[in-house]
Amino acid sequence: MMLEKNRACLMVIDVQTRLLPGIPDSETLVERCTALVGLANELEIPVFGSEQYPDGVGPMDDTLKAAIGADNVAGKTHFSCVDAPECADLMQQMTQDQIVVCGMESHACVLQSALSFKAQGKEVFVVADAIASRHAADTEFAIARMREEGIKLVTCEMVGFEWLRRSDTAGFKTFSKAFLR
């Protein structure tokens, strides 16, 4: 099953400034998440975000939060966005049956959110080159577990090509500037 823009939304999980120094190649993670948000916004695909315990850990990356829109970002204390009462309003807005997930950390909030979305009957696509953890092994094992659980693993470019389906659109220009360099 391919991604379809009219059935999809994007969930950006916990890309928080204070956590980024511990994430290998964090600049690339932020760039990829921000580019996915930009493409989703251009294609009018709903975008949501979360912040893990923002009172203690701090806010999401400013550029990313601005691209998502502060009203579409919720703080939480549960690792899974789905299980977090603080995210209930966002979850109610998420009527799409395809959920594209990016963010951090792969083995905690990303994994638990993806599994919870799948348990709700959603078709879950985790963007493997736009997730990260402090330790490479955690991402490696999170990806293996998600694959075993039937979660679809994609890359940023796969998401873009599937959402767009054609190259003769304004959206493709945005996509190619962000990803095809």
From TrEMBL:
TM regions (residue ranges): none
Pfam family, one: Isochorismatase
InterPro entries: Isochorismatase-like_dom, Isochorismatase-like_sf, Isochorismatase_domain
Residues covered by the Isochorismatase-like domain: 9-156
Name of protein: Isochorismatase family protein
